[in-house]
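Dear colleagues,

As part of the handover before I leave the project, I'm documenting each prediction I ran so the next person doesn't have to rerun anything. This entry is a single chain, and its sequence is reproduced below.
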Amino acid sequence: MTSSKPKSIQTMKPETAAKKLGVLFSATPAEFRAGVVSRDELNALQANPPAWLTDLRRNGPHPKQVVAAKLGVSISGLARAGITEPLTTAEIEQLKAENPEWLEHERGVQAEARKEAARLKQG
């Protein structure tokens, strides 16, 4: 015999939800930052993003993990280059266009790290 307990609602801090959504927490609307986010609310935001979320994803400012991915470098590579602040999409595109020496170097480092990870996975 099983007892059916009411299913508890999973919630998370808005900081966690912002990270899962790939956006900078401090750039989200005040009402998002004010409360908790349920798993269902997170799924709804992912499935049907409101205008603020679409805009943040498109234009930024972006958190460091998104900046690193868009530039093709690691988060550590960003830090070595002295980039510690969030960047907008326009700033990221400008960096790509300028293609500074550090960016080329860090892309090479990232490519080598990926090759090594793939080699270890197969080995």
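The longest helix spans residues 101-122. Strands lie at 11-12, 37-38.

All the best with the project,
I.
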